Amino acid sequence: MSDSDLAVSAALGIGLAAATGFRVFLPMLVVSAAAYSGHLPVGASFAWLGTSSALTMLGVAAVAEILAYYIPGVDNLLDALATPAAFVAGTIVSAAVMTDLPPMVKWTTAVIAGGGVAGLTQGATAVVRAKSTLFTGGFGNAAIATAELGGALLVSLLALAAPYAALLVVVVFLWLAFRLLRRLSRPAPPSSS
């Protein structure tokens, strides 16, 4: 495997992992559908992702997760549960698609880059949702849930079609999210009366 193939494989894995930070099950469903249809080779130990059982199970889980994020209060609870789940899912999807890598390189990259970027993405979206709950009383959370759903789908599909572009989208998202969070975290200037 050439260095460029390794880089594409890593970019694909990291892009899919980042998508699990938006929604845990939707990117896994996309990977499962692509593996099931033969469009995405997965490692031998992840062949279960390409089965009809996995496709069905992940489809049900993805729909339940998507709908649950539109229920006020449940969305914030899900963020608390999704943070460790995103790390695990990010590690799994990145390891699944990084085929033909030596096991030590695959798992190190999957845990550090895949799990790490999934955790960062999930953490950023959780903080944005918490701020939305604080500032809008939860009324703005549906817009955030819709943006996260779109982000998960866009990044998942883009990672399959153009892994480097997906990686760029992830970097831009994280940069914008951290800028927004930093701006929201600044204390209000004192009012002059």
Count of spatially separate domains: 1
The CA-CA distance between the termini, in Å, is 68 Å
Low-pLDDT ranges? none
The rounded Rg comes to 17 Å
Largest sheet: none
- The protein's oligomeric status is single chain
Shape: globular
What class, by secondary structure content? mainly alpha
| H/E element order | HHHHHHH
Report the helical percentage. Answer: over 70%
Mean pLDDT: 89
**Residues in β-strands, percent:** under 5%
- How many DSSP-defined strands? 0
Q: With helices defined by DSSP (H or I, 4 residues minimum), what is the helix count?
A: 7
Describe the structure.
The chain has 193 residues and is mainly alpha-helical. It has one domain (3-185). Helices cover 78% and strands 0% of the residues. Helix 1 (3-22) packs antiparallel against helix 4 (74-97).
Structure keywords:
78% helix, mainly alpha, globular
Task: Set out the fold topology.
Layout lengths: L2 H20 L2 H12 L15 H17 L5 H24 L5 H34 L4 H21 L1 H23 L8
Short structural description:
With 193 residues, the protein is mainly α. 78% of the residues lie in helices and 0% in strands.
